[in-house]
Amino acid sequence: WVKSAFMVILILSFGLTVIILVTSVEDCNEFFLKKTPPNITRILGGGKILNQSRYKLICQTLNNTTTFVTLYDTQNKIPVFSAANDNPNMRPSNNSTNYKHQAGDKDYKNTGFSRGHLFPSSYGSTVLKRNSTFTLTNIVPQNKDFNSGSWNKMENCIKCVLNEYCKNNSNIEGFVVIGAQPSNNRLNQIISIPSVLWSTFCCYSQIQNSWLASAHWGNNRNHGPEHLDTKTLGELYTELGIEVFPETQLWKCR
Ligand SMILES: *[C@@H]1O[C@H](CO)[C@@H](O)[C@H](O)[C@H]1NC(C)=O
Ligand SMILES: *[C@@H]1O[C@H](CO)[C@@H](O)[C@H](O)[C@H]1NC(C)=O
Ligand SMILES: *[C@@H]1O[C@H](CO)[C@@H](O)[C@H](O)[C@H]1NC(C)=O
Ligand SMILES: *[C@@H]1O[C@H](CO)[C@@H](O)[C@H](O)[C@H]1NC(C)=O
Ligand SMILES: *[C@@H]1O[C@H](CO)[C@@H](O)[C@H](O)[C@H]1NC(C)=O
Ligand SMILES: *[C@@H]1O[C@H](CO)[C@@H](O)[C@H](O)[C@H]1NC(C)=O
Ligand SMILES: *[C@@H]1O[C@H](CO)[C@@H](O)[C@H](O)[C@H]1NC(C)=O
Ligand SMILES: *[C@@H]1O[C@H](CO)[C@@H](O)[C@H](O)[C@H]1NC(C)=O
């Protein structure tokens, strides 16, 4: 991990300059289960970013509050994943999410792609947390049908599971890690259009007296299945090479 704090300026295709404070993982590792980040083949392993000039860890911060963490791919200009452990006193998501004032909207016009959040706004337990998800570094070009269809259903479903089952002494607590696999297809020749989006969670459930976890993923295109299958973290590892909660051997989160 990057040891000392420094500033990185990313010029995104949106013509926007985003100033991002990148710090050591210790500053925002509370968002990872057992404070251990995922292992992702060729990107991140054993807590080390393999190419530190390409991949940047971002402690997503709004009004001096860190709300979640993102690993950002500066070459593909999309996040690898966003992770959070705030679970959310999740209220039903309203349509109040307002893209209109976000820079970059024009890049998505008439492209068939929408601005897909990795960490969904609806999972934030406070207005600040919900607002903080609108940063470009949490956004990928997402097929509109996929976004509003099977992906949206899965997001709502997981939100319910977290609300219902991920309780310990009435505190809701769950770890959520959501990511994208880049492809060589680009939006405006610059932003990689992910081929696959994946989503995972893990939590301790007092009601079940056990750890719960699941993985979902789907292709970022039209005519996908109506529902995403619920898979295990082991299947995610086998099929996509992503070990989301590396310490879970200890925690039976599979
Ligand atoms: C995965 O993560 C664990 C814990 O951080 C580490 O010990 C292990 O070496 C990692 N595996 C790979 C392939 O990087
Ligand atoms: C690391 O990333 C930079 C920037 O994307 C790239 O130019 C370089 O070739 C990469 N290094 C390795 C060893 O892949
Ligand atoms: C930002 O933080 C300050 C100080 O903690 C607080 O007074 C203010 O209400 C916060 N603003 C928002 C928009 O959350
Ligand atoms: C954040 O904290 C710094 C230093 O504590 C302070 O200078 C700055 O005004 C704060 N920003 C906001 C938005 O509260
Ligand atoms: C959603 O909208 C309803 C009615 O418009 C409102 O009462 C409720 O507070 C909103 N919920 C959130 C989370 O903003
Ligand atoms: C959300 O948006 C859909 C379609 O735009 C609309 O049918 C629905 O009534 C909206 N829900 C709320 C709570 O505003
Ligand atoms: C959230 O965003 C809305 C709309 O941009 C803004 O009016 C509000 O002050 C923001 N609140 C916080 C806590 O950031
Ligand atoms: C459940 O909550 C208690 C404190 O209320 C904490 O000590 C304990 O570690 C929690 N259990 C798990 C599995 O997180």
UniProtKB/TrEMBL annotation:
<dbReference type="InterPro" id="IPR039015">
    <property type="entry name" value="ENDOD1"/>
</dbReference>
<dbReference type="InterPro" id="IPR001604">
    <property type="entry name" value="Endo_G_ENPP1-like_dom"/>
</dbReference>
<feature type="domain" description="DNA/RNA non-specific endonuclease/pyrophosphatase/phosphodiesterase">
    <location>
        <begin position="64"/>
        <end position="251"/>
    </location>
</feature>
<dbReference type="InterPro" id="IPR044925">
    <property type="entry name" value="His-Me_finger_sf"/>
</dbReference>
<keyword id="KW-0812">Transmembrane</keyword>
<feature type="transmembrane region" description="Helical">
    <location>
        <begin position="6"/>
        <end position="25"/>
    </location>
</feature>
<dbReference type="GO" id="GO:0016787">
    <property type="term" value="F:hydrolase activity"/>
</dbReference>
<keyword id="KW-1133">Transmembrane helix</keyword>
<dbReference type="Pfam" id="PF01223">
    <property type="entry name" value="Endonuclease_NS"/>
</dbReference>
<dbReference type="InterPro" id="IPR020821">
    <property type="entry name" value="ENPP1-3/EXOG-like_nuc-like"/>
</dbReference>
<dbReference type="InterPro" id="IPR044929">
    <property type="entry name" value="DNA/RNA_non-sp_Endonuclease_sf"/>
</dbReference>
<dbReference type="GO" id="GO:0046872">
    <property type="term" value="F:metal ion binding"/>
</dbReference>
<protein>
    <submittedName>
        <fullName>Uncharacterized protein</fullName>
    </submittedName>
</protein>
<dbReference type="GO" id="GO:0003676">
    <property type="term" value="F:nucleic acid binding"/>
</dbReference>
<keyword id="KW-0472">Membrane</keyword>
<feature type="domain" description="ENPP1-3/EXOG-like endonuclease/phosphodiesterase">
    <location>
        <begin position="65"/>
        <end position="251"/>
    </location>
</feature>
